[in-house]
């Protein structure tokens, strides 16, 4: 039986997002589906003028009125942040700016003193959440890039299922992929890219699950002939030297946070943290370190298509 699909691609969250659904579905559903993403992009993306997180950032040091969804998102993030010993922190923006990711002029490696000064502003524990208000410390800034797009995709999955669709796939900029499957089409096959070459690392079977990946190959700085990736360690203040992390999970939101939070780990640290996370979540994954060695969790290999 040949399955036929139709797809649309639109740009949101600074990424091209592709939704693929069965060809017999009403074309008008695409507008409804992308509207879910557009609403979250407008209301919760820290880069969107007037969003709740934009307001929190612009009023650092003061309590800001927010809605219940902002409170829910932050409580989930703060819970997950505590699992990573400081290596996942949504207040990392001062370090990102220090390294020059939002500058046009010539960039230099920051001094030790500059890094230490910026690190004092990076501390998720200073985020204060109460009934309907949020406050960050003066000088802090939240960046939503590691979770908001994937949070929106989870909401989109709910909308697609509510429309009665049981076979679909969403590709959000290549870094977040979510498969929806049924008995007729039990799995999607996706290509896992090799960040250092043209060939794929492997093909992955994905069934009613999310695949989240973090990598340093697309967004980086070049200083004195050396490339520095955009995923920084809030603990060291320096960009990670690892190449890639891939995570299979039930939730895009959780998977995206985990792939970022584990990016600064050694192979041993990656394995230990994944063991801990697997006590709480259905997750599996791999790490490609700076020497291109790959460390897998035991349950990840079963998803690789031979």
TrEMBL record:
GO terms for molecular function: metal ion binding; transferase activity. Its cofactor is Mg(2+); Mn(2+). Coiled coil: none annotated. Magnesium. Can also use manganese. It catalyses: L-threonyl-[protein] + FAD = FMN-L-threonyl-[protein] + AMP + H(+). It is an enzyme of class 2 (transferase). Keywords: FAD, Flavoprotein, Magnesium, Metal-binding, Transferase. This is FAD:protein FMN transferase. It comes from Dysgonomonas capnocytophagoides.
């Amino acid at each position: 039986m040949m399955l036929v699909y139709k797809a649309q691609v639109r740009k949101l969250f600074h990424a091209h997002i592709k939704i693929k659904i069965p060809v017999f579905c009403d074309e008008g559903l695409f507008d409804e589906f992308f509207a879910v993403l557009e609403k979250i992009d407008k209301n919760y993306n820290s880069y969107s003028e007037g969003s709740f997180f934009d307001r929190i950032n612009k009023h650092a040091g003061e309590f800001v009125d927010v809605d219940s969804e902002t409170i829910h998102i932050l409580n989930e993030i703060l819970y997950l942040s505590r699992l990573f010993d400081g290596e996942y922190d949504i207040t990392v923006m001062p370090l990102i700016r220090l390294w020059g990711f939002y500058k046009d002029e010539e960039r230099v490696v920051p001094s030790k003193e500059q890094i230490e000064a910026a690190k004092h502003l990076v501390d998720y524990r200073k985020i204060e959440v109460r009934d309907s208000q949020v406050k960050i410390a003066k000088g802090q800034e939240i960046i939503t890039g590691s979770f908001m797009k994937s949070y929106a995709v989870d909401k989109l999955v709910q909308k697609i299922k509510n429309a009665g669709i049981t076979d679909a796939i969403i590709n959000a900029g290549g870094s977040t992929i979510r498969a929806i499957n049924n008995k007729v089409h039990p799995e999607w096959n996706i290509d896992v890219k090799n960040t250092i070459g043209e060939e794929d690392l492997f093909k992955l079977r994905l069934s009613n699950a999310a695949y989240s990946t973090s990598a340093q190959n697309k967004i980086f700085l070049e200083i004195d002939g050396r490339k520095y990736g955009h995923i920084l360690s809030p603990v060291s203040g320096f960009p990670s030297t690892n190449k890639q992390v891939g995570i299979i999970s039930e939730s895009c939101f959780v998977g995206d946070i985990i792939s970022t939070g584990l990016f600064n780990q050694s192979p041993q640290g990656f394995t230990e943290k994944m063991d801990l996370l697997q006590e709480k979540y259905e997750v599996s994954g791999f790490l490609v370190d700076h020497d291109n060695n790959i460390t897998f969790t035991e349950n990840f290999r079963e998803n690789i298509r031979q």
